[in-house]
Amino acid sequence: PPTVNFILLRLTSMSSEKFVAAMRQMGILVRDCSNYPGLDERHVRVAVRSRSDNEKMLKAMAKVCS
Fold it and tell me: How many CA atoms lie within 13 A of 14 on its CB side?
């Protein structure tokens, strides 16, 4: 079983496929959850990591979503 905490996000400005691809281009892996039962093409999952990793992810998300 996983031992990492995850956060499920619902995107409002783009599809999970486009978001995952854009984040990958920035060196950050995000899980597309569109194939999970009950979720759709707006859901992604991110891991809670170290403070510096989380800050890097938030900066990348701000760029991708702007």
Answer: 15
